[in-house]
Specification:
The chain is α/β, with parallel strands linked by helices. The chain folds into two domains: about 1-115, no CATH class; about 130-349, Zn peptidases (Aminopeptidase). The chain contains nine helices and ten strands. The longest helix has 22 residues, at about 1-25. It is globular, with a radius of gyration of 21 Å.
C-alpha cells in the first residue's frame, strides 16, 4: 500500500511540475528542504536523507509549494551480534520562500521499516561508532594544518581561521551559530573551504568540488589541483543538492563563496566499487575506524591542495566572488558583500 501511494504521488507530482514551471515567468525555482525541517518530519537524521522535490503549484501568498519524499537510514546493533538498520521515510507538503527557505511543512505519510541485519563490527569486534573518516579525517587535517602553519609560518596578508564545528547532522547547528556569530567581523570572511569526510581511500587523481562553477573560488581550486596533476569535476549527482546539505551552506547564506572538496573515484574504474563498498559497509557504521585502508599519499596531496588554496585566497588582491549566473549570488547581494572592503579572514571547516 505504501509503495503504491508513493508511485502515485510521483506520477501526479511530475505532471504538476510542468504547470508550476509554466506559471512562473522566471522559470524553474531552485527548491530544497533544510536538514532541520527533514529531521522534524522524519524524527531522525542519520545522514542518509534523500529528497525528491516537486513544485506542484503556488500558494495564495505567491510562494511555491511542493511534495517532498524523504528517506534516512539509521543503524544499530541487532540480535545475535549483527548490525541492523531501520529506514524512515515520509512524504511531506512543503511551502518555500523565493530563496528556498522552508516556511512551513506538514507530514503526509510516514513509514519505518527494519532492514536485514548484516555484520558491521569494527576491527576490534566492538560496535562503537568511531567516525574515523566521517569526520575524523577532516578534523585531523585541520589540526595538522594548524601545526604546519605554526611550524612553517607563511607571510599572509590576511588571517586564516581553522574552525571545527559540531552538530552537522542535527541541522548544521555548529556552523549555523559560527556563521551568525563569528570570531571576526562577519564581512571580513572572504571564503569558506569545507573538508568534511574527504575520503582518501584511493589515489588522488580526481577531485569532486561542489560549488566548482558557482564562484571564482572554484576556478582557483581547478588551477591549483591541475598544477599538481589532479583533475577536477563538479558534482556528479547535482539532483541530490549536496552543496546545501553540509556546513558550507551556512556560510553561503551569509554571502560567502564556498566549496567542499572530496577525493573521487575515476569513472569506469574499480575505484567506483571501492567507494560504493565503503558507503555500504562503513558509512555511519562501527567499521569506520582507524584500521580501515587509507591512502596516505592521497590525504597528503589533498592537504597540499587545500593549503595552497587558502594561501592563494589569503594573499590575493581581491576576494573570491560569486559568478553572475550562480543561484547563490543572491545571498551575497542580500548582505551587500560586494560593497565591503578587503577581506581579513578565510574560514575553513
Amino acid at each position: 500500500m505504501t509503495r503504491r501511494f508513493i508511485v502515485g504521488m510521483l506520477a501526479s507530482a511530475a505532471i504538476c511540475a510542468t504547470s508550476a514551471q509554466a506559471a512562473s515567468a522566471a522559470g524553474p525555482i531552485g527548491l530544497y528542504l533544510s536538514q532541520g525541517a527533514a529531521f522534524s518530519i522524519l524524527g531522525h537524521s542519520c545522514g542518509g536523507i534523500q529528497e525528491r522535490v516537486y513544485a506542484t503549484g503556488f500558494g495564495a501568498d505567491g510562494f511555491p509549494t511542493g511534495d517532498v519524499y524523504m528517506q534516512t537510514r539509521c543503524g544499530g546493533s541487532g540480535r545475535g551480534g549483527g548490525y541492523k538498520t531501520t529506514t524512515y521515510s515520509a512524504w511531506a507538503s512543503v511551502t518555500w520562500t523565493w530563496l528556498g527557505e522552508t516556511r512551513s511543512f506538514a507530514q503526509l505519510q510516514g513509514t519505518a521499516q527494519e532492514n536485514p541485519s548484516f555484520s558491521a563490527e569494527d576491527s576490534h569486534g566492538d560496535r562503537i561508532y568511531n567516525g574515523a573518516m566521517d569526520n575524523g579525517s577532516g578534523s585531523a587535517l585541520i589540526l595538522d594544518m594548524a601545526a604546519s602553519f605554526k611550524k612553517n609560518p607563511e607571510k599572509l596578508r590576511r588571517s586564516i581561521l581553522l574552525v571545527l564545528v559540531t552538530g552537522e547532522e542535527k541541522g548544521l547547528l555548529g556552523s549555523k551559530y559560527f556563521a551568525a556569530h563569528p570570531t571576526v567581523a562577519p564581512t571580513s570572511i572572504a571564503a569558506d573551504v569545507n573538508v568534511d569526510m574527504f575520503l582518501p581511500i584511493v589515489p588522488l587523481k580526481l577531485l569532486t568540488v561542489l560549488g566548482l562553477d558557482d564562484s571564482d573560488l572554484g576556478d582557483r581550486v581547478r588551477q591549483i589541483a591541475q598544477s599538481q596533476g589532479v583533475k577536477v569535476q563538479p558534482d556528479p549527482e547535482p539532483l541530490r543538492n549536496l552543496f546545501i546539505r553540509s556546513d558550507q551552506y551556512n556560510f553561503i547564506r551569509h554571502g560567502v563563496p564556498s566549496v567542499i572538496m572530496d577525493v573521487a573515484p575515476e569513472p569506469g574504474t574499480p575505484e567506483e566499487k571501492i567507494f560504493k563498498d565503503w558507503l555500504t559497509q562503513r558509512y555511519h557504521a562501527p567499521s569506520d575506524d582507524v584500521n580501515q585502508p587509507v591512502d596516505l599519499a592521497a590525504a597528503a596531496k589533498y592537504e597540499e591542495i587545500v593549503r595552497a588554496l587558502l594561501i592563494n585566497v589569503a594573499n590575493g588582491d581581491r576576494r573570491p566572488e560569486w559568478k553572475p549566473d550562480s543561484f547563490f549570488r543572491r545571498y551575497a547581494e542580500a548582505v551587500k558583500m560586494g560593497r565591503m572592503g578587503m577581506p581579513e579572514a578565510i574560514g575553513v571547516k
